[in-house]
Amino acid sequence: MYKDNIVPANEATHVAKADRTSNAGDLWSWSAEDLAAAIKRKDITSREATLSALERISDVNPKINAVAEVLAEEALRAADAADAAVQRGEHLAILHGVPVTTKINVDLAGHATTNGVLAFKDKLAATDSPPVKNFRRSGAVIIGRTNTPSFSFRWFTENDLHGRTYNPWDKAHTPGGSSGGAASAVASGIGALAHGNDIAGSVRYPAYACGVLGLRPTFGRIPSIAEYGRGVTAAIMAVEGVLGRSIKDVSIGLEAMVFPDARDPWYVPAPLSFAGADAPCKVALFSGNATYKPDASVAAALKNAAEALTAAGYVVEEIELPDFAEGQDLWSQLVINEWRDTLGAAAMQLGDDRIKRKFQDWSDLVPRISVTEFSAAMCVRERIAIAWQHLLETHPVILMPNSWELPMMLDRDQGGLDAIREILHIQSPMLLPALLGLPGLSVPTGLSNGVPAGVQIVAGRFREDQCLAAGRVIEAAHPMQTPIDPRGF
Questions:
Q1: What is the DSSP letter of 409?
Q2: Total Cβ atoms within 10 A of residue 227
Q3: Mind listing the pLDDT tens digit for each residue in 43-89?
Q4: Domain Amidase, which positions (predicted)?
Q5: Which of 9, 92, 174, 461 could be a cystine partner for 163, CB 3.0 to 4.6 Å?
């Protein structure tokens, strides 16, 4: 039987054969929507779904190391409680009995919030964080906690405590970061949904790299907290998000996570949908310029997505996004300067060698600024936000890349200043939506050279409904066959 423990990357875990049920089968591959419906109809039990998901962890996690902590005993207790509620005829929440994962950088009561840091391996949480609390409130069964880079501050997922997470499509490519464990898990059938968080693409980029859907909501949409406060940049840019294998599941995951929490003063109780969200509209296509040029795979993904939207009645127009280069630089100017003496200082003291090298190089590229200059930079952010809002009035949906290249090879950020400068250029589409607090959705469009390709959809504040509507069109035209068995291991 599983034990609730941190599982080393090279150690397989096993479900006791005696505890299997004949109906568990391939339930690990089912969608969240189908699992919830079948559990409510009593066609299957949550225990069967949970056992199937735990067996899937046993089968594939030793290869990809997506789940850093397996919560089997807790999960089975939660599943049994879910099944008892079904038998009693109680009201059942939207994810009742559905196996999911959460990221190991948010609090789960009684477990260490390690954030991939060796020094935090015994840092037990007293209470559940808002995303964990809301998943539970929505009936979900948390089967494990997914891996992240040290301090959750790389587009690669590896740390000295939990080891390296691999991309199930090709282990030579990054699974993304910092929610690389979440994306790799969902793509491989470990959990129907995964929680992640995003300040610089940490939901959207792993989703892109692993060929799944990843939604970064508007800041204020899903409640979030930080132990010592978040600072200005994290408060207005960092968000909790959700990853899944379909637009429908991501929509369900979003609905499950939006309950208010008094611990977040930035929370906004905005409607999840507005009239006319599904109606075709004008789309601003940003496919590059003289400075930012997509590689062939990215250009093809944008073309395919644009054609799908056009066929569905959307009017797609090539448009230069306002202040794109300036906004990309502004993200670093604001975040790195605020974090130098907070998260950056902690990373330089307690982090592993990879995060130290990454943060030092990024910091070296960003000049120090005064408080007055920081305030002036925030005014520039406001000016850019206004320009984008004017664009979104005429073109409510923006179609743009996740990255200007296919998913990066492992550890590309360990090559010094030039490598970081190059990566910031490549990853610039991740930064602008975060800088402005906008929702962004990563949607796969198929494979290119054996690894996932895809696009990013951005909309106005609290218009996740328009992101999801456009994403649904692209998904229908370019369905991604996930979950998959890890390839080439």
A1: B
A2: 10
A3: 999 999 999 999 999 999 999 999 999 999 999 999 999 999 999 99
A4: 48-468
A5: 9
Query: How far apart are alpha carbons 321 and 431 in whole angstroms?
Result: 13
- The predicted pLDDT at position 25 comes to 78
Q: What is the pTM (predicted TM-score) of this model?
A: 0.95
Active site members: 103, 178, 202
Confidence at residue 231, expressed as pLDDT on a 0 to 100 scale: 87
For 216-273, the pLDDT digits (tens) are 999 999 999 976 567 899 999 999 999 999 999 999 999 999 999 999 999 999 999 9
Are both 5-257 and 282-475 of the same fold?
A: yes
Cβ–Cβ under 8 Å, residues 12 and 63:
no
**Residue 261 token pair:** 């929490």
Contact (CB, 8 A) for 85 and 159: no
Residue 44 identity (one-letter amino acid): I
Strands 282-285, 397-400: parallel, antiparallel or unpaired by DSSP?
parallel
Q: List the domain boundaries for the chain.
A: 5-257, 282-475
* DSSP, residue by residue, 191-232: SSEEEEEESSSTTHHHHHHHTSEEEEPPTTSS----TT--HH
Q: Are 140 and 256 in contact (CB under 8 A)?
A: yes
On the question of pLDDT at 13 being above 50, the answer is: no
For the segment 159-183, the average pLDDT, to the nearest whole number, is 98
Calculate the average pLDDT of the chain. 94
What pLDDT is stored for residue 23 in this prediction?
53
- CATH topology for 282-475 is Amidase signature (AS) enzymes (3.90.1300)
- CATH superfamily label, 5-257: Amidase signature (AS) domain (3.90.1300.10)
Residue 338 host element (H or E): helix 324-339
Q: Give the pLDDT of residue 18.
A: 33
Task: Name the helix (H) or strand (E) containing 397.
Answer: strand 397-400
Instruction: Supply the pLDDT for residue 230.
Output: 79
Query: Residue 147 above 60 pLDDT?
Result: yes
> Alpha-carbon distance 25 to 7, whole Å?
24
Say if residues 357 and 414 touch (Cβ distance below 8 Å).
yes
Rounded Cα distance between 6 and 1, Å, is 15
What gap in Å lies between CA 53 and CA 92, rounded to an integer?
Answer: 21
- Joined together, the tokens standing for residue 407 give 């998913």
Q: What pLDDT is attached to residue 377?
A: 98
Q: How far is CA 103 from CA 1, 147, 149, 342, in A?
A: 23, 7, 11, 22
How do 282-285 and 440-448 pair as beta strands? unpaired
Q: Decide: 148 and 157 in contact? Cβ < 8 Å.
A: yes
Token pair 């075709």: residue = 280
Residue matched to tokens 């990215």: 298
